[in-house]
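fold-stage: in
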Amino acid sequence: MSDQPVAALTHRRVLKIAVPIVLANATVPILGVVDTGVVGQLGQAAPIGAVGIGAIILTAIYWIFGFLRMGTTGLTSQAHGAGNQVEVKALLMRALLTGAAGGVLVIALQVPLAALAFRLAPASAEVEGMAATYLQIRVWSAPAAIALYGITGWLIALERTRAVLLLQVWMNGLNVVLDLWFVLGLGWGVGGVATATFLAEWSGLALGLVICRGGFAGGAWRDWARVFDLKRIRRMMSVNGDILVRSVLLQAAFISFLFFGAGFGDVTLAANQVLLQFLHITAYGLDGFAFAAETLVGQAMGAGARASLRRSAILTSGWGLVIVLALAVVFALFGGAIIDLIAKAPEVQVEARAYLGWMVGAPLIGIGSWMLDGIFIGATRTRDMRIAMFWSALVYVGAVLVLVPLWGNHGLWAALMVFFAARAATLGLRYRELERAV
């Protein structure tokens, strides 16, 4: 075992990894606003609903493959930390092939998937017809969209987060320009929005392959015996499978939160939806430092450097703490103004303000779960993550059953905070064993 870091672990290095991710995240909501705004210029409600439903359906489907980003980061950072550049290149090929296979599967199942989605969330015949048009065009970029998860994870593992920012800015910028041209210039309507995204995603994959060209230098990337090595594939499948189960449980908790909130009436449901945007903002701010933890912890694990692993966890978590303290202050001082910006209905504004205190506490309570997720992904201790999420979900259900009857919607928010704390506690209890495994 060596306790010497692969490279100096400094605050500057952490920020160099994290800041581009935070900036890349900031471009995501801009695209959604432009998509909605462009079709809104058509003067009809149906196109707005169709684009919204179509985007949500594909986002939900692609989200299933989110494991590819996290698993690729953990495995690649460890191979890089161990100095195994042949395996680093093989991992890029496995990620690309997995993304391509996943995309082909989505294309093949597009009809039953769309039918199931419309059955779960029915809309008017006009909206469903337009949404179907959107899906029929955009689904053909599924291989590119899913493969980009792998490329992003690979780049993050190698600390090339500026390249990730470049990819996001390129794809979202091109998407915006094509949106304006196809919809407002050529009058293609909903089909124009879908075509813009289709072209942006394929162009993003092309740019990603150019950025990753170093991974194709030499012949290691086409060493098929290594790329398709059963032991390594089983390892990749195990890691990705654990992450998938963990993510499904996490998503189920948030979806159930909305369902429980619906029982308090439309105004409270709307207020909860507005307040969830505060959690999204927190996630955007913390993601960069959680990703930095994935990268640095993974490299330390691969190098067998226990001291470096611990310093990576401390440095990234320290910066995460700075971010959540700042967010808590911002939410406390300007939370009401943020609510008014998001929601225009006076009754929703009043209702949301009644629960604003939970938003001030959420970043402080949630930081442990966010940062430990990054640490455990980097260490590829995904079995621990799956088990911890299972117990945390049970704790959350118990908290809902006890607190909601007592305190109503305040009890529901309290249960969500308990869920955050349980996630941090269940992973925190396993951290010492993680270090011993180095």
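fold-stage: in (second)
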Amino acid sequence: MLIVGNGRLFTRDGSLPYIENGAVAIEGTKIAEVGDAKAIKEKYKDAEYIDAKGGVIMPSFINTHEHIYSAMARGLSIQGYNPQGFLDILDGQWWTIDRRLTLEQTRYSAMDTMISCIRNGVTTIFDHHASFGHIKGSLFAIAEAAKELGVRACLCYEVSDRDGMDKAKESVMENAEFIRYAQKDNADMLAGMMGMHAQFTISDATMELAAANKPEGVGYHIHVAEGVEDLHDCLKKYGKRIVDRLMDWEILGEKTLLGHCIYINSHEMDLIKETDTMVVHNPESNMGNACGCPPTMELVRRGILVGLGTDGYTHDMTESYKVANVLHKHHLCDANAAWGEVPKMLFENNAAIAGRYFQAPLGVLKEGAAADVIVVDYDPPTRLDAGNLNGHILFGMTGRDVVATIGNGKVLMKDREVKVADVSEVMAKCREESAKLWKSING
């Protein structure tokens, strides 16, 4: 048994949202009970105890769109790189990196990303991977890191024709093999999807290949209309809009996750809604790549299941929350925009998206839910209660305020010390591998 107690407990459970001095009792991988700290501690006298020291106890975060392969880009300057638009950014930076990633570099990119996730209180990620220099086994290398570090992961490889049909086929098979592997894993910690880059790099032949090899029970994870170039390509080549093309290939559906959706219209929103397809918003990336602001508030208003991700820009979900909040206020010239929509995306919709791939309830602290719990070192100068927690997170917290992270009942970090890896050793290896990668790019 494990108890996390002596803190302000926010459960995200509508039947019992807040306990002033609360505790969470954990047995195995599930939450056994939530309640008053004194009563819980008295009931489970022999349990290991994590003292929140008056801080905030709440469910850990979920990130519904990550890019592990970008980890070794930090600080990299690529010779001759001078992008004039989104396609230049993709080819000049991201595709340049992923074409040179070795299997070992993919593994350590995953280790770095997941350690950062743990430090920021994130215990579940949906990753969209690319390493066209070494495709086969890449998802399994990431999964190995996820198992070692105790992070729940839904993985996919981004299928693309950009480096030729042979690699497109290899990408499809990597997805299919990993999905079957994850489906046999009974720990409820791994899942797989059929990943796709974006429609503008995927031919009809590759669409057909992916559909023919996708195992039952999963959907697709694909970038949609991230840049206007994607839309223009689809209109020119196929005479239809992107979501229509995906509909024709039976890609839409309740298990499919569409990234970005910036340049979509009302008709496409109707298709997304009617097919119960999921969307993930990545505000910081959209701004950083100058791609534009998606109609996210309208998607939420229509009842489409829209989650919040980081696109690899950061591993701190509070940062994505803050950026989304100001982006939509600024874009809509409406100071009242995003107050309710963005926290709904982060705290409710991300959990609902994860619920389509993992069995245990996530994003909530209640009996029977996955034991994913964080403690935040936070002592505000103003009143804090169930009615204003989101405002405190938005304006008072960052991911690095997390001092303890429990994932699936396992203590991943305590007193800001990561317990599941020798971080110094991992970072030394990351620096060694990133130096090799940078040399392969710049010589």
